[in-house]
Amino acid sequence: KGSTVMQQEMTKLDNHFRDMVSVSGNQIVTTSLKVAKFFGKRHSHVIRAIESMGCPDNFASAHFWAHEEIKQAGAVKRASKFYSMTKDGFMLLVMGFTGTKAMALKIAYINAFNWMADQLTGRRNELMNQHNEACLEFRMERGVASLAGRTLNRWKSKKPILDERITSIEKQMQIPLLLC
Predict the structure, then answer these.
(1) How large is the angle between the packed helices 100-173 and 87-94, nearest 10 degrees?
(2) Which tops the pLDDT comparison, 109 or 27?
């Protein structure tokens, strides 16, 4: 029964989480703001979790990017920090989140990232097929045009010879009439 409830929760979340990922450059990403919202955590706690993971700098720089946005709080403007992250960064971050809701959300996030990758791959494959079809049609039409050009040149040289031959045969076919 517990797995059925989790499956229903994942199905509801799958479609919703597709909005949670986006493409930046050539990577599929999400943000710490989205993670906080959908895991029901304070954003400051998510930021602290990212910054205290202790992962190597080369991994962190490849999968997490800090940003600042200016927020208006009444008459005061203040800078607010958030992170963009890849699927791998996301997975590293949320591995420590626990509970049934967290498990359903992790799986839905994975499905959202995979859905976006499938969309990109499908579009690329569709364009590749269209490109291949257009190239094939181009080559075939170029071959037809080339053949037509060669055939037209051949016709230009043969036409006068055939015209003369036909005229000669037609003259020979005429029955001479004797007029007295």
Answers:
(1) 160
(2) 27
